[in-house]
């Protein structure tokens, strides 16, 4: 007899200190004004972005590590460092994706200690499941009945799936020209698609007005402070999977810039809480496509503020955000921690997608190709040393973006169904 899972119970039991209760307020990143932990993303005084702040004084590093290691095989093992608890109806299987030593790709790039963190292996095949998990858990805590997002593609699928599990009405705003595979995914989970004629940034402006008027829990607008925190778990897992050590360098893609910001934050929390032996902050470098490169362009030209890209032109739709909300913050962080920002062409992206697939058996979407191409450029320029430990984040799955490779593969040469014909075919 099979026993159905009891989803009315929490996914796991945890002590007070580790139950996601350490968040104390939202705080403006610019002027420092504090607000209660509610649905709000911008400071009422100065319009700055709000961040979750914590009181970690109850935490003791040794017992925290023990509790994490005894926790669920998911990102919720780090609940103590997140602003929400896993709820009975959230996708609690997100995270703890595999990380492996990439010997083949390392050899091709000339890196002796290269690792790949394959975050395409989340329930909806992108790292977006992490921020969404926290935003939805918090939305349920706050009693939301409607979930929403504005998306370049992956977020739509992730929010739609989470909304289905949570039993919430779900709306996803997308630019009307996103990849059909990503729309299909959001639709199959039952979300209502709002296909906006315009760029992501235009869809975003409309969504912000809708969020204001209808009060829906927009995961990356009104729930954004909580949403962002979920991305820290990639850094936590990286360290834990290295045996509570830090890598020398991490390479990741930059779209809205929140993954970059939160990876910096995640590693800093590990150091400050004494969860890792190392005290040296990893260098964290970001990559963008040339056709939508506001952050990389500003970094490379020495500017402190990016210039928005009004018409993104890239096959890396996930990164086609011309006016990234964490862009200027990331520029500041990159300079502070000695990270770099690189840009690559679509042709370099496609070459990198093929290289990753042929060496490591991983089929990534263009965002992963951009990241690998960026790593390759930095290595070739001598900016990353061959003995540095480097972790490459692969954030999304290529099966959702097959149109990006149209015309790129060899044509089939059909063969007659007899052995003689096969002999000739093999040549
Ligand atoms: C959203 C997304 C990114 C960019 O993340 P940001 O936090 O917006 O910078 C990168 N890769 C994939 C696959 C994504 O879906
Ligand atoms: Zn402020």
Short structural description:
With 427 residues, this protein is of the alpha/beta class. It has helices at 61-69, 103-109, 129-141, 154-166, 180-188, 200-214, 224-230, 232-241, 258-272, 294-301, 327-336, 346-360, 366-380, 419-426, and strands spanning 23-28, 34-35, 50-54, 99-101, 113-118, 146-150, 169-175, 192-196, 217-218, 249-253, 283-289, 341-344, 389-394.
Main beta sheet: 6 strands, mixed
Q: What oligomeric arrangement do these chains adopt? A: single chain
Identify low-pLDDT runs: 1-14
Shape: globular
Bound molecules: pyridoxal-5'-phosphate, zinc ion
Radius of gyration: 21 Å
Please estimate the helix content. 25-40%
What are the secondary-structure elements, in order, as H or E?
EEEHEHEHEHEHEHEHHEHEHHEHHEH
Number of E-state strands: 13
Q: In whole angstroms, how far apart are the ends?
A: 56 Å
Number of helices: 14
Report the portion of residues in β strands: 5-15%
Physical arrangement of strands within the biggest beta sheet: 4-5-13-10-11-12
Overview of the molecule:
- The chain has 427 residues and is an alpha/beta fold.
- The chain has 14 helices and 13 strands.
- The chain has helices at residues 61-69, 103-109, 129-141, 154-166, 180-188, 200-214, 224-230, 232-241, 258-272, 294-301, 327-336, 346-360, 366-380, 419-426, and strands at residues 23-28, 34-35, 50-54, 99-101, 113-118, 146-150, 169-175, 192-196, 217-218, 249-253, 283-289, 341-344, 389-394.
- The strands form 3 sheets. Strands 4-5-13-10-11-12 form a 6-stranded mixed sheet, sandwiched between helices. The chain has a 4-stranded parallel sheet with strand order 8-7-6-9, with helices on both faces.
- Strand 6 (146-150), helix 4 and strand 7 form a beta-alpha-beta unit.
- The termini are far apart.
- Residues 28, 30-31, 33, 43, 45-46, 48 line the site of zinc ion.
